[in-house]
Design a protein that fits this description.
The protein has ten helices and two strands. Strands 1-2 form a two-stranded antiparallel sheet. The chain starts with a helix and ends in a 10-residue tail after the last helix. It has a domain of 114 residues. The radius of gyration is 21 Å and the shape is globular. A hairpin with a 2-residue loop joins β1 and β2. This is MerR family transcriptional regulator. InterPro entries: DNA-bd_dom_put_sf, MerR-type_HTH_dom, MerR_fam.
Length: 208
């Protein structure tokens, strides 16, 4: 297919596709002349995935590129890179948060990478919640880890059950980035439901 058809199939403007090509987010098409190239269904899938990572998942162009590159190395690398792309440690952790983190991980029996961005981000969250609101996530919200464990088991079982390696890798990436957004949206809807039960006379602020 030509560029115009690729644009129609992917739902992206030609200018956006050319930008993705320049940034290395999309592999070049097969050259048919100095100014023309032919694209395939694989390009359509790649564009849709890229758009999901950037527009819905909120990844930067650089982070999306890193995730897409890691997909060439297999599902574990793709999963780890997607996790790292979603969080940015701020270095707020202290001795207390490191101890609470160790307690949580040991209680759950998890084998994790202590130097991963996710682990550092969790330690940052622990100390930030304590300083901002006096919340000890490990003690006060202990059930969260159990729920996260159940969700992660489901995630990995679903990913492993996909029919081919390509689907497994894509599933790992999409499930990690968009799954987090999906779960958070569900949590917000549940908040609305139970807050209406707890405070039935309260009303929402007017929409802007």
């Amino acid at each position: 297919m030509r560029m115009a058809e690729l644009s129609r199939e992917s739902g992206l403007p030609v200018a956006t596709i050319k930008f993705y090509l320049r940034e290395g987010l999309l592999p070049p098409g097969e050259r048919t002349s100095p100014n023309q190239a032919r694209y395939s269904d694989e390009h359509v899938r790649r564009l849709r995935l890229t758009r999901a990572l950037i527009d819905v998942g909120g990844l930067s162009v650089a982070s999306a590129r890193a995730v897409l590159d890691a997909m060439e190395e297999g599902p574990i690398a793709a999963l780890a890179t997607a996790q790292d792309a979603m969080v940015e440690p701020i270095g707020a952790e202290d001795q207390w948060s490191r101890e609470r983190y160790e307690e949580l991980v040991q209680n759950m029996g998890w084998e994790v990478y202590a130097d991963s961005a996710a682990a550092q981000h969790l330690r940052d969250l622990l100390v930030t919640a304590r300083n901002a609101a006096g919340i000890d996530f490990v003690a006060d919200w202990s059930a969260y880890a159990e729920h996260a464990d159940a969700v992660a088991r489901h995630d990995l079982a679903w990913i492993a059950g996909l029919p081919d390696l390509e689907g497994t890798i894509s599933g790992a990436v999409v499930g990690t980035v968009l799954g987090a957004a999906y779960f958070n949206a569900l949590r917000m809807l549940a908040h609305q439901h139970y807050s209406k039960q707890r405070w039935p006379n309260a009303s929402l602020p007017p929409a802007e």
